[in-house]
Protein 1
Amino acid sequence: MFHKMWRSYFTILHKDRNSSKCVRNCIKHINTSVVCLSNGKKEAKEVAPKGLFENLQNKNRDTYIETIKIFVNRDAIYRRGHVDFIYSALKNMEEFGVQKDLKVYKALIDVLPKGKFIPQNIIQAEFMHYPKQQQCIIDLLEQMEDNGVMPDYEMEDMLLNIFGKKGFPLRKFWRMMYWMPKFKNLSPWPVPNPPPDDMLDLAKLAIDRISSIDAQSKTTIYHANDITDSIDHTWIVSAQSTKQKMLLQEYNEKDPVYVEGGFKVWLRSKSVNYFVLRGKPKPIKEDNEDNDNVSGLEVPYFGLKPPVKKSLSLNTSQHEQEDGIIFSVCATGTSSKDSLLSWIRHLEKDNPKLATIPIVFTLKQMPGDVTVTEETDS
Amino acid sequence: MLQIMGKRCFNQVVKKRTIYKQVLNSTSTQPVAKDSETEFNKQLKQYEELSKIAPKRARAKKPQRKPFAKNLFLGNFDEEILTYPQLEKEDIDELETTLTQVEKLTKQELSNYKQFDANFLQNFGDYKLIGLQAGTFENGRECNISEHTKIMETLCHHRLRNNIIHNEQLGVQVLVKYGSDSLKKEFLGYFTSGKGIVGFCMAEDKMSNLTNMATKAALSADKKEWILSGEKIWVVNGNKSDFLIVFAMTDLVERDELQIPKITAFLVNKNSPGISSTQYDVNNLDLSKIRFDNTPVPIGNVIGVEGDGEKMILSIMNEFRLSYGSVCTALSKKIANKLCDYVIEETTDENLLLKTDAVRDKIGQITLNTFAMESMTYLTAGILDMYENQDVELEAAIIKYFSSQKTVENANICLNLVGTPALEESHWCNKLHRESLKYATLHETNDNLKVIIALMGLKYVGDTISDQIRIARNPLFNAPEIFKRMWNIRKDIEDNPKLKLKLNECLHPSLLMSANNLEYCIHRLKFGSEILLTRYGAEIMNQHIDLNRLADCIINIYAMTAVLGRASRSYCIGLQHGDFEMLMANAFCNYAKEAVQLNIKKIYEGPCQTNDENHRVIAKRLVKFKGYFPVHPLSRNF
């Protein structure tokens, strides 16, 4: 039955490869449906030795590991209440900042006794021997997966020693080892894992990602200090391509340009505010060229110019959108209006035309001084 | 054979040369001689000189024919072209005496010159070897294009061939063809006598078409001068030149969305104010970047008509491309000769290099390549001489591509055969190899040229059979025609076209097989270009991979035509080595047929069965990640 279900999810997966979330949901669904058959209510499990983690003063990795050691040593033989302990440990992981630490997960699995839970016959194996314990470790693995922590082969050995080769946690482990490496590097815009803590590095990554639409974009870091009269002394990461410079040069100086933002871009669990310099849209030319008419092709005598139309007219660039022309994009250290003003002053050096164009600041939210925000709820 | 000879008959029409009249007029309108004796003597001398000059016999041309190579794309073959052109007996006799002089000059007297300057050029001037097509009264030889090409080839035995050819083709020749009478009178003698060098300034940084040419010229306030400013790149002989031919935009006419640039050519004295030049770091080639800052140019120095620059550029480029045939032929011959000497030298009793298969194969290839490029060059030159105002832009481009590409190939083969000693920079093989690369890349790269070649052909096809293509692209609206078309191309789809042109009747009977190969290729080319136009429509402009294949086909077909015509002629009239020319023609046709067959097969199969789509996807990825993207094979994921 299990395999049948798996196969049906597998087909769904193929339709939407990019979404790792989809996979997670599928696996979650399978697990819970399997659990529902064998296990009772979830609330019943949460009879944990209360306060073991919650009451600690110093919440960090060392105290977390220490707590696990204390639990293991307190009752070396029977280790009563280990399932409840693991659940409460899992719940408190984020507060200790260990939710991405493979070693901590291993330490938690290691709490379980070895050998006792291995099924001895086929009936035990099929009907989920020690269901509460198995489900507990499945939940642990699930939490690992949600946090993007990839298990290793040592964990396979541990699970094999605890639940045997027919155990459900091991099957879950194998599925994880099949999918997780495949999803790990699937992002078209890779971000280092963990993402850098430095705000400047993060902003650079974000702006690089946004400007990657045009391969000729150049990311520059300006300093507001270089502009006289600037109040906010901060950095400005700005990106502009040669095409964008050209578009700005051709822009009608009677029309204003807008500084808009801040918009959010996410890099793993962190987000960066960015701003764009947008101009009024050009009327987009209708592509009414008759592709069937092959008479009058023009030979490009002076160099290749793909992609061209038959009449060698220029195509609209990706910067010219229906709602406006994007001239540049930036993120600043403070996201303040003053830092954006410094950005415009810096851009003026490369784009002299900008000095003659009226600039309107339409900032959607109150400029705050936080650029990088940490994701709070997962 | 009789047929061949018959086709060759020229009607000699004796026509009074206009130029002759002009000179007579100019002598009679000169101011009355002063009494001083020196003045009289001077005039007498001048008159004597003029009376000695005999205007060349007028050569009549046949009426214009349809462009040959372009028509191949439509499957039409002009059999007249299989008759390899030749010069009149008296012309060739005269040419040969000149050539012995030239050969002596380049191989002995001037062999030590390493600098291209006025000293060197004056030797050429003494023998009237500059401005070969200039009229006899302008100190020229009034050569036709075949003679011109042959003399250039001989001149190119000298190591400074690149400089020579640029000065001649892109310098003096521009003046000869387009200069006004007054401009010629003032400057042409100066150049043809070798006192000055001319550079050609056309290319610009970031100039993708003539509309965005950044060099501008405007009339000064008093309308006596043009003021020129801008920057030109890749000027050959830029440093040593005394005069520059500069193309600049004089006006940009804007009509709705269309922009029509008016380009004008100027003859600019290098010593005029505001000219500065920087030299590129290119080995053995004087290549410069030249800047003009408000340089004044006298109004009389406009070459040709103001605003006619674009036409001039295209026509000059044609002849320039054709001249690559002569310089590359000279270089390839040199490679072949040097390699032959080397192999003979290196052969010992233990190591019979001469008789090894490996060496024979390579030498055979080099000879074949050289034979083909030589045949094509003189065929095209002959076509130009024979027919009035013949369209050979496609042929010229083919020659540039084929000759430079094969010369690089020859040099590569040579480099491989010579081996380690060729690593030395001063080794002859290394030098020749580096030089050959210059011809393949200077001004326009061969890849680029190939696309142009294919598009020139397809433009012609598109203009001619636009209606058919429209029908083929909309099968559901035109059912009866589509069934007809399916019936008509059934043999093409089987790769077994019916041969009906009877090309073998224009050639020696023993060339039957090769003639059939040629015809097969022509049918395939037609099929290929129809497929491409049907599949992509006007979008074909951007399908560079398939365009490259199509270009390969037309290049091979034109080469086949040239070698077959040449070999057949040589064999029929009993030239020395005629039998071997037949052999080489057959061998070349085998090669070419294979190449055409493969290329058309790939065009027929389309992007999915060939590797085209894969290449595109890989390239996109590379650009996205701004470099080589695969992770190292030793890296681990977990």
Note: Chain A has a mean pLDDT of 82.
Protein 2
Amino acid sequence: MSLVKLSKINKTYQSGEVTFQALKNINLEVKKGEFIAIIGASGSGKSTLMNIIGLLDHPTDGLYELDSQNVSFLKEDSKAKLRNQKIGFVFQSFNLLPRTSALENVALPLIYAGVSKAERLLKAKEALKQVGLAEKSQSHPNQLSGGQQQRVAIARALVIQPDIFLADEPTGNLDTKSGEEIMRIFEQLHKEGKTIIMITHEMGIAKHAKRIIRLKDGEII
Amino acid sequence: MDISETTRSAFTAILANKMRSFLTILGIVIGVTSVILLISLVVGLQTFITNQIQGLGSNLLFVIPGRLGGARSPGGVQANRLEFSDAVSLRSKLGSEAQVSAVIQRTATLKFGNKTDKGAAVFGVEANYPKIISIKLAEGRFFKESEVQSVRKVAVIGQTVRKNLFGSSQVIGQAVDVAGLKYTVIGISAPRGSTFGIDQDNSIILPFPAAQRQFGINRLNTIYISAKGADNVKPVQEKAVKVLKKRLTEDDFTIQSQEQTLSTISQITSVLTLALGGVAAISLIVGGIGIMNIMLVTVAERTREIGLRKALGARPKDIRSQFLIEAVVLSGLGGIIGIILGIIISFIIGRFFTTTVPLWSVALSFGFSMLVGIIFGVTPAIRAAKLDPIQALRYE
């Protein structure tokens, strides 16, 4: 049973007279529990693909089914709701809110899910424990190392119990040792049966995934 | 989404840039402070005048020469035709329904020994004056009908006159020199304070005929009428008009009741409130522009945060309300500081003038400052809500 199913996805950008085809006829299926890596050079279209899978963008044409639901051309509010419920983002630059504790950063997506404050903090605490940062819950991002910040970000994705983890160059801003730690967390999540789609340009990182998809000039090769 | 959570994070954001937030709300603070202050002054003034007029007595009517609100101004180009005979005919026609006293007024220099008191108000009134105007005596007594009829030279002096001429020495029975003639002091009135900077206590009250003779005046400044009972004010006023019209034309006199005088004053003060409040409101609008400016900066600075929140599931309306609440919290904070400041300053000024901070002015200025926050916060909030999450996340 496929969780993500992309059929004949195209994405073109129009800039004045110039059209640029970022994605060409992409067909991709990701099954529940899979850990895949999408690898490609910069400009290969991997960010565009991730944005479409993450419901931040929509394809020019083609069909995107998420959990058997056609989500190709949803309205903004419906996309926001699906992102909130089904997709756990992990970004290259962590994107934690400054002047906000790790705990509250982790609890942030639950605000938009309408979860009560007490339950939010409880769930956030649990998620922080899973990434091994229970004792740092009151620390602000500027008091944490890069690796710790990324673990907080993973906890933030984890807290909503998403269908898919979408990680965009999750180790890109980290040293090798911290990067390895992050990959161990993803491997652990994979063992627990979570679905992970990771974008990277480093083969060493991609090798942690069980399946590698190569993108070049907007096409899967 | 959670309003209290949003409000809390708005406070966090505002406190993160304390100096900037303070400067941003300064315009609102100044605007609200001036609204509170100006209203407190005008309302204080109105209360003061009202008390003064009500303190004069009850069920009063004032007959003044000339026509008020007519084509010609009273006492202006037209001659004063109000005479003592008018007071006499009013008294005989109104009978037991009202008390009537003719009043003349001059200013004169008073002397006692080597001391002088310049610019004292000299009133010539009849013996029934205390039955019309509530006048409290600190010492002595008022003059009697017999003293008025026999043109005795007696006087009731105010507190300022007493202080300037006699100091703390014995006053009753002394002879005070009023523009060359000596009057025996028989009473001292209680302190009355000042109205419009005019010292009400720098006055001396003389029997009407004596004053008339001394100053050689035939025209009256006022005829005071006090009706018996509040229900009688209107009939007495109508009757008085009829009586006076037998000898005078309607351009020669005006009869105003206490209520009419009060409503004239409240008309003046409400125009004053509106004008001053309008000027202060302009500064609130200027303050609002300041808030809008800083909110636009904030939205630009926090583009990545907006992108992140959207990626995590914030709908455009969540982002919109977040920034709108932040603008309203800013302006509301300015409003609260302004109200506190306004009340403090009006309290300090209250030691020199009468000031009153009415609850409605607090509610009005707070409401207005919140409104300014909403009006000027909408544009930046909409801009934030419209940001594309992909672009916003990439923003450096």
Note: Residues 94 and 236 of chain B are 7 Å apart (CA to CA).
Protein 3
Amino acid sequence: MIMDLLSYEFIRRALFVGVLVAVCSALLGVSLVLRRYSMIGDGLSHVGFGAMSVALAMNVAPLAVSIPVVILAAFLMLRISENSKIKGDAVIALISSSSIALGVIVTSLTSGLNVDVYSYMFGSIYSISKDDAWIAGGLACVVIIIWVLFFDKIFAVTFDESFASATGTKSGVWNTVIALLTAITVVVGMRVIGTLLISSLIIFPVLTSMQVFKSYKSVTISAACVSVAAFVIGVAVSFAFSTPTAATVVVTNLVCFGLFCLIGGIRKGSRKNG
Amino acid sequence: MTEKGSKPLIKCRDVAIAYDKLLAAEGITFDVFEGDYICITGENGSGKSTLLKGILGLNPLKSGKIDYFGISKREIGYLPQQTSIQRDFPASVYEVVISGCLGKRGIRPYYNKKERQLADYNIERLGIADLKKRSYRELSGGQQQRVMFARALCASERMILLDEPITGLDPMVTAELYSIIRQLNNDGVTVIMVSHDASGAIREAKKILHLDTTMKFFGTAEEYIQSDIGKRFLSR
């Protein structure tokens, strides 16, 4: 069956883009989740939906509009979260629900909930164009190269921003880089897995890995592996049972999480007894 | 105030420093000499931590001047207050300690042998070699502070700045940490510590700086015990 599936070009492309998005979101997720910025991924995807709807209504290229808008929103949200005076989570919720409201109004005034809008909400992994595939490939290369080269710097900034700044690491620059990459990953990921579910790709693999692994390096590597495995398994299952792909991938992630919780629990129990 | 002919490492002159645009402390003038053990004390909100961050260059000065002699801002080891993020962060002790070498590394994307040895040396020095592969979040409060000391020492052998290092620790662990700081100071590490534990400060530190939005006192611990402000603060 697998060979049959892989003989279709659109499936190969879907897997290629999906795997790359899965790796990127897992890597960025490690930083975002550990710094309690999980909701930023969710908020950004909703902003992306708003921007996408407006772009479709105005008949301009969705990516060209939504990437800058989402980048702007990413900066705004990180800045607000850093400022302890304002309740960051509340503001993120405000921005994201306002974006959805705007998107829905614009959509209903113009074309109505058409196929394009629907596909951005729930992903349309099998209709990815060649251009989208190139963009996803390029993005993934950038994220992975940055992560490998600056692994320790990203760790230091994530773990302890004030110590990192005190010893000469430019925390502000790295926060900006992380915000930028998150924004781009969210926008590209929306095409694959959809607005409503993209944040799960950012959050699940990290939380799953944290149940079992204890060092930053092992959590990062595990998150990337879990993310890719859950994606591929999810796609295969969705084919076998004709379920919606994006939703199946998320449920696979949930199953992985449960499995890792179990393993983590057993380990802890055996250590207590032993 | 000159000290056995030695030159100061850091000179603060009439420093005023702000936190979130509010003036946190002003009129701060003091020198830090090689081998000093200074405790900055005062009530909560008196600007102690803000001053420490000012010395590190993390908080901009509102006025006045801090000069560094033969030491750069980046050559100061820092032990910040613990954040809630760190308490359940999945990182091994070794990963945390060696991140102290990051400033030395520049743009090289990996740690070289010398830096790895320095991390091992400081892990050994703080008696946490058996915890090296353990996860930071599984450690007790005292063990976590030892890890933070080792990391600070990786960043600098010469001077460490400690921000409330004993807060939330039980008396036995506190005593252990004080003896670690004493040992480091005897080895020649210059120590500046922020603490509201005044009785610990006069027992351990050589000099006291009392802040209450302005600098109320700077001198030796003995002088502080005799001073009015010292008497008042100690008898709280």
Note: The radius of gyration of chain B is 18 Å.
Protein 4
Amino acid sequence: MEIYGTKLNSRLFLGTAQYPSPKVLCAAIAASSSEVITVSLRRETSEGTGTGFWQMLQETGARILPNTAGCHTVQEAVTTAQMAREIFDTDWIKLEVIGHADSLQPDVFGLVEAARILSEDGFKVFPYTTEDLIVGERLLQAGCDVLMPWGAPIGSGQGLRNPDGLQAMRAHFPDTPLIVDAGIGRPSDATQAMELGMDAVLLNTAVAKAGDPVKMASAMAQAVTAGQMGYQADPMPRRDMAVPSTPVLGLAEFA
Amino acid sequence: MKITLNAETREIQATTLDAAMRELGLTSQALATALNGAFVSRAKRAATPLNEGDRIEVLAPMQGG
């Protein structure tokens, strides 16, 4: 898979929040085989904990994808992205412009505007969006080369709420990398996303809040691989009725 | 003068953003700054004057999804 000119072997992007400890976080990153991990920016504390965290992440060797989580306006998102670019020394940005504090649903109007401003400023924008096709078109027009539709509300672990919508996105944007971002709860959710033809999956809470985050990270990696191979293998069509798989010809008659 | 640093009121002697950072002990390289809502790059802090009531945001790397 290639995104913004960068080749990636792993199709699992992993978030770094909510782990029981830094040690578990690092072990989970390794177990996931993820090459891209997401991070954020928050106010510096008197303890200066951000510097140590950043050094630890650099040692993982993973590529950093900073986010603008918690930003509710275009101005907040743009300023946060600019600050992230300087600290993390990357022009990649996972753009979130949140429209509602409870649902954390993207404000797609602000998202498109912020994506345009940041793309013109040289950023490589990964927009957290809905499955709306026209919003997707506007984001591509704004300069995005990748779309990140939600699977379900952030942190909900509900799985894919609208698989038909994601399938429609795949059909509508055959050549655009599509990454399901948010809502994945179980390995089967990740597999389903990949079977629908998504190019990658970004998740955090499903691993961080599992009873065994490291084992779940490994499970998610295998689930993503299985789903992607399944998609490439072109699954059989579903049938309404049973069709015997064992040949009927030559069946003995005992009656 | 009084400024606001990460939503806390602080009294400082410094008159530029760069000097204020040093005065406030914010010397890590892994920090980014914004003044009154607008990003100020590391290179421009020394040439960025501060005024009474300015709002400074200093952000650091943090876990994120």
Note: The first helix of chain A runs from residue 22 to 32.
